[in-house]
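Notes to self after the call with IL:
- keep both proteins in one doc
- input above output, always
- annotate only the second one for now

Protein 1:
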Amino acid sequence: MKIAIGNDHAGTSYKFKIIDLLKEKGIEVINFGTDTNDSMDYPDAIHPVANAVTSKTVDFGIILCGSGNGAAMTANHHKNIRAALCWNNELVALARQHNDANILSIPARYVSLSQALDFVNIFLSTNFEGGRHLKRVNKINSKDC
């Protein structure tokens, strides 16, 4: 498995811990995020993650910013991206089970590191249920996209 990760300055410390977790699991990581705490514009790190997911260069993406909102909004501008902003375990599981989320957006300033690592584990271990949810997921992309 291969994961793309992107973050702004608010998510740098969590990103390094998430990368450690992924590598422990034998998952290859492509890092598009900043490695410093110097202020930067989150779209510069998020667009490459979304591009890697849409091109199938990676299996999933993980994105982090302060609130998780800007990162998710940026990623969701890409066709076939379903970035889910999650702040608890149940939302992470449902994002995968019901929405076939392919990018996890973590609000680094609003969850603990322990929670963020739990989210990553849940995201990667939860499968899309398909069935009645597939019809809905197939309607997400606008016909104008």
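Protein 2 (the one to annotate):
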Amino acid sequence: MPLIRVELFDYRMSEETSAALIEKLTDALGEATHPGLKEHTWVIVEGHNPKNWGLAGKPWPVDQMPPAPT
């Protein structure tokens, strides 16, 4: 059972984004490995508050956040 896990800043998440990631990542895994895996592939898409992310042992600097989608 393949499992693909995606974690993004929560403001980048929407139902449409999640559905597109699930479909396209499942297709990509099948193309890269074996088409029969598609029916057995799980994809977990999670959004997290950027304030809960860190880099190099330090909390992510909020003033350096990438811009939110418009």
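Annotation: The beta strands are 3-9, 42-48, 54-55, 58-59. The chain has a mean pLDDT of 89.
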